[in-house]
Structures are given as structure tokens and as C-alpha cells.
Amino acid sequence: MIQNLSPQLNDAMNIPPKDVQQKGLFFLSIIVVLFFAACEIVARGDEPPADIQKRCTEICQQLQSMTVRVRSGTDVSSGVIVSADGLVLTVAHGLKADAATTVIVSSAQAFEAKRVFVDESADIALLSIDLASSNASDIRCLPLSTDARSAVGEIAMAAGFPARESDGMTTVIRLGEILAVDDSAIKTTCTLTSGDSGGPLVNSYGELIGLNRQIGKSPESNGHIRISAIRRALEQTDLWKKLPQQVSANPHLPLLSKRLLAEPVVVRMARQATVEIHGTDRKGGVAVRACGTIFDELHVATKLSEIVFCGKLECRFADGSKTTATLSKQDRTLDLAILTMKTPSKHGGIIRAGIAESGSDVSLVGRIVFAATSPMNISVAGIISREAHQEPSLPARFGATMQEDGKHVGITELSPNSSAAFAGLQAGDELLQLDGKVITSLAAIGSLLEPCQPGDWIALTVKRGQKEFETQAQLQHDPGQQFDKTEFLDGRTGRVSLRRSNFQAMQHDIAKTPPACGGPLLDIDGHIIGVNIARRARESTLALPIDIVVQFANNQL
Fold first, then answer.
1. Burial of 198 (0-12, 13-18, 19+ CB in 10 A)
2. What's the rounded Cα separation, in Å, for the pair 245 and 229?
3. Beta bridge partners of 110
4. pTM listed for this prediction
5. Are 341 and 314 within 8 A, CB to CB?
6. What is the C-alpha separation between 67 and 159, in angstroms, rounded?
7. CB 3.0 to 4.6 Å from 262: which of 249, 266, 384, 549, for a disulfide?
8. Could you report the per-residue pLDDT of 131-165, keeping only the tens digit for each?
9. Are 327 and 337 in contact (CB under 8 A)?
10. How many H-runs (helices) and E-runs (strands) does the chain carry?
11. Using the 8-state DSSP alphabet, how is residue 29 labeled?
């Protein structure tokens, strides 16, 4: 405790005068503040965004070259190459007894695999493939680490191959946070889906800390086998000693999840560029709400299937202001709508200039991204796994049995809960026009519906008795696909977009609700790099590159 001593005593003890003491205390307090600030920076691992981005990009690229797909009978899982001579670590529950096992590597080459080790109680397996016969130079291995760290609050990345996808697709990466760690298991927010089991989980150094094992009912309950449990199982047969080992000597500090919160520049740009679009449905009743992305002074991009037959459209901004808008351009293939606002955006020029400056030929794979979910809210960080990804097309169902007589096409039967039924059609109705085209044959209907995707809207002119009327129908998915395992898993994490197929787009792992599609996708520096166009699946959201959006709006596509 500092005491107020008398001047005489100060002199006798050679203590500086009071004013000198105060100056000394002032400088001492500055030193203390700077010391604790430095300690906080060290504790946070306060790297510049560019360095954080570089780390994540490198880890993502490595995971895509090390992660493999494992096929055993009819089961599909994932694995990771852990030695240069072709040893693959995976989970035992992905292997069917007495079934041939095939491993597909990143170059899409398939190898017959031998089972070196299987421990069903630990759910661990080691396979062997002949990598010497591979002509791919980009295949890498992920050596096991003797001291791989996995701390609560640190970021983690999980990799794997969704079972619904065909062989030859690239690995899907998920970015998340470590929530809990015990001696055998790790829990993260990395979203897993069917087919991911056996894929690698790595920490912020790119070290293998576990294998994907359990798909959680929610995004906060995904389970992974910890590397310590893998080591115990392999040490029982001396296999651990035979595997290549690496000792961590990384100069970086762990990358904590709080370092991936959106920086102020990202939040500011998201609020300036995002609008909430309000409208009325086709009957003039229930309000329709969707997100939109401002990309210049007067124009907004959004998801066409969310607003195509809306009545009055209104754009609402983060500051509470609003303006009416009209649908000025649309493309069903892109599911993209361009709206023209009556009142210009006061931030439009800044946004347009930022988009022009952000153009780059650098690969977007591994880019940390954020998605605006409303004018005032932004998502947690995600990561881009794929660019120019071609999401396969799906058959669209109208749900009506029709017949023709050479000049007319009539409806004879409706499927329950079908697009045609929801559109208000009845048996006996005659179809006159589809999307403004005159209908005289079943072949004409087929040619018009053939390019459509589930979730697309079509306009119909119908004759019932002596009266004609117009209506709209939203095409549906094949009912048989709704019971597919992966579709069921997707539904457990929230609604996916009805219109979600036949896109060429970027793919990232931010979970968005369908109405939030249409909003901007931003990188760690606050650049708008895309427009979110569809929640495809549990682990997948698709985004149109912003240059494609601008080119379409400017009649350059």
C-alpha cells in the first residue's frame, strides 16, 4: 500500500518528492497496462486476418489431398492417408464383413484395399492400398502426431465425402469449434453427414486429432474418436510404432474460435449490402421475407424462387428505412432475380467499388467466409470447400396425370399433396398455357418442364368449364427421394431450400435458412464474393460468385 510520508522522512530516506513519485507511478501504470495487453494478445493468438486466412487455406488444401472415400459393399465412409506407402486410417463401422473394400483418392483413382487392422470395440481400422501404382502427384499423407493438441475453444476442421455424392467429387471441409474433450472422444460444431465417418479431424496446426464418428442430432453434438484412443488401439499390435510420426514444432499459437468472429469491417459491409425483402404471396396473403444483396446504387440480387410471383416488393435496410422495388430481370437456371429499387442505396457506390476491387484469380478453396442472415445479423465463420462446383440436376414433379386429343391437354388425375394440387387444379381442367407458351400436346409440356428443377415456379393458364384463370405451381422433388437417408439427416438440421439443384456455384458449410438465401457471402476482409443461393444440405450451402451476378445484371451473360 502506498503511504503519504512527511517531507522530512522522505528526505531522510532519499525518497523522491511527491510530484516525481506521481510521474513514476504514471509511467509504471502504463508499463503494467502494456504488459497485460501483451499477455492478452499472446493468449488470444492475435494474428492478422491475412495470416489466419493463410493457415486455414493451407490446412484445407492438405485435407483435400489426404482424405479418401471408402466403399465396402453398399456402405460408404471416409478415411485419411497416414503414410506415404498407402496406409489409410478409418472407422471399423464403415467396413462390411466379407465385403470387398475400395478406396478412392483425391485424383478419383480407385484402389483395392486390404484390411491391416480392425478393432470394432474401438471403432478403428487400418487399410492398405498400393499408392506406388498411382500416377497422381498431389496425394499426400498426414503423419500421426505424438502430441497433437485439442483444446476446448480452439478451431477444428473436419473432412469427408457425403454419401449422397458420386465418386470423384472433391472433399468437403467443415469449420468448427472444439466444445469438449475427454480421454477418448472430442465433440465439435463441425457439421457431419452420412458418409463422413472415418474422415479426419484436425486442429489449427493441421495435426490429426481424431476421426469423424458420430453424426449429432444438432450441430453441437458431432462426435469424433480422439487420437489418444487411436494410439491405444494401434499400440496393442505395435502398429503405432510402424507408422510415420511427427513431433509438433509449430511456431504459431492455437487459433481460437473467437478469432474467427466477424471483424467490424465485415459486419459494416454486411449491414450496408443486405436488405430484407418483403412481399405478398400469390394469393396476396402471407408476407414473404427473403434476403437480398445490394451490388450497386439501384439494384439488389436475390433468390428468384423466393419472390418470383410476389405482389408488391419492398426492400428494408439496416437503419430502418425502406423502399419499393420491382423485379427487373430473372434467370431460372441461376435461380437469380435482379430487383430495381425506387430509392437509391446510400451505400451503393461504396459496395460497387468494393466488388470491383475484390476481383482475384486466386483460388477460393479454403477461404474463410461469413453470411449475412438479415440486415442486422451475420453468421459464424464457415469455409469454402469447392468453387465452380456443379450441383447435379434433379427431376421435377408436377404431380398430375394428363391426356391429349391432338389439340387439347386435360388433367385426369392429381397426386395427393402435389404441385398441381397445391396450385388449385382439378381433374377435368384443361391446360392452355405454361409460362406463356400455348399447350397442345403432352410433348410440349414435357419439353417445357424438362429443364426445370424442383423448387422452380411455373405460370399456368387453365380452363375450367367455360372460365379461364391463371395460377402458379412450385414444382416438387421426387417423393421417393424424400425418404433417402441423407435427405432425412438434412431435415434434422433445419429446412433446406426447395430449389437447390443444377447450380454451378461455390460451396461452403454455413447453415442458412432458405429465406436467408439471397444475402451476401463475405470473406474475412469484408469483400462481397458471392450471393448465397441455396441451402443444399446439412453441410452445404451454395453461393453464386458475385462476378456472375454482376455480369448477368449488366447483360453480359
1. buried
2. 16
3. 104
4. 0.88
5. no
6. 7
7. 266
8. 887 766 678 899 887 778 889 999 999 999 999 89
9. yes
10. 12, 34
11. H
